[in-house]
Design goal:
This protein has one domain. It has 213 residues and is mostly helical. It contains seven helices and no strands. Keywords: Membrane, Transmembrane, Transmembrane helix.
């Protein structure tokens, strides 16, 4: 008759429970972060390109078409360095009610959409590219002011054609128009400068990593 073999139980020491193998790092984490940055860059690039195209559509094509209704005179929005009261008076004399209504419509449509779109993607771009909080707020100042001044300027220009010409109203529209163009240029230059610095910094990092291999 065969003997039954008793299996002995194995007992592990408490120290053996403490020495558990460390779980390996998830290799998908760096990939997820890189993918998020790539998606953000795609969104930023699309937004900036759309803003540039909308700028030319608004200031060159839409406002340029109104020259046919104003005897070839440019709209007040197109004067980068301002306009005079005589120029506004000339526009008032050649623009009928349909031309004024068309200018108001341009301001309410693409004139509203462009500053909001440009301001949004400017804040998004600079928020992604500028690291420190203080510098980020400093970079955001010009785009945020541009949105406010641009929308205010549209209303001030529309007011020049709905009632008797007032010198104070002309000066207000003049100041807002000049300030709008200045803030737009400052905002665009800020994005370009920050983008170039970021490109140079990334290029140096990639070059240093390549030389160390």
């Amino acid at each position: 008759m065969a003997k039954k073999v008793r299996k002995s139980k194995e007992y592990r020491k408490p120290s053996q429970f403490a020495q558990q193998p460390v779980a390996p790092m998830n290799p998908a984490a760096p990939r997820s972060e890189a993918k998020a940055q790539s998606n953000a860059m795609i969104l930023i690039s699309a937004g900036l390109v759309t803003s540039v195209l909308l700028f030319f559509y608004y200031h060159v094509w839409a406002l340029g078409q109104l020259a046919d209704l104003s005897g070839g005179q440019p709209m007040p929005d197109q004067y980068v360095f301002g306009f005079s009261e005589e120029q506004i008076q000339t526009l008032r004399s050649v623009m009928n009610e349909d031309a004024v209504a068309q200018l108001n419509y341009v301001h309410r449509s693409v004139g509203l959409f462009f500053p909001l779109l440009f301001g949004f993607f400017s804040l998004l771009t600079l928020g992604q590219w500028v690291r420190t909080r203080s510098r980020r707020w400093l970079a955001w100042a010009a785009p945020m002011l541009f949105v406010v001044v641009d929308l205010w300027s549209n209303q001030a220009i529309d007011a020049l054609f709905v009632s008797d010409l007032d010198g104070a109203a002309v000066q207000l529209a003049l100041v807002l128009t000049i300030l709008r163009w200045a803030l737009l240029i400052i905002s665009a230059l800020t994005i370009v400068v920050v983008g170039l610095r970021r490109f140079i910094r990334t290029f140096r990092q990639k070059y240093a990593e390549a030389t160390q291999r």
